[in-house]
Amino acid sequence: MSSSRHTSVETVSALAGALDKVANEDDSSRTLSYVDERKVCDGNMIAYIPIATTAIYSCDIFFDEVATDSLQKWYC
User: Fold this and answer.
1) pLDDT tens per residue across span 6-23
2) CA 28 to CA 49: how far, in whole Å?
3) Contact 50, 40 (CB under 8 A)
4) What domain of life does the native source organism fall in (predicted)?
5) Phi, psi of 10 (to 5 degrees)
């Protein structure tokens, strides 16, 4: 059995679709935060959504990986 990791095109497509839905959502109950309140950001995580809430928490790497002009849509 190979120990290398493989991500299928279908998996990437499903993930992209889910992220697109989040990006285009207009739910007034959703909150966005740039503070890692649960201290789970590990340097490789861009953001997380705790199961019990609708809040999206952005990790520090998010601001390095997302274009500044795109951030205005999320945080303004």
Assistant:
1) 667 787 787 777 777 777
2) 16
3) no
4) Eukaryota
5) -65, -40
Q: Which residues are bridge partners to 33 per DSSP?
A: 57
Give this prediction's pTM: 0.53
Beta strands in 11-76 (DSSP E): 32-33, 47-48, 56-58
Domain assignment present for residue 6? The answer is: no
Residue pointed to by tokens 């679709």: 17
CA gap 56, 64 in Å, rounded: 17
Q: How many domains does the chain have?
A: 1
Domain encompassing residue 64: 29-76
Condensed to tens digits (0 to 9), the pLDDT of residues 40-73 reads 998 888 888 888 887 888 888 887 776 666 665 5
3 lies in some domain: no
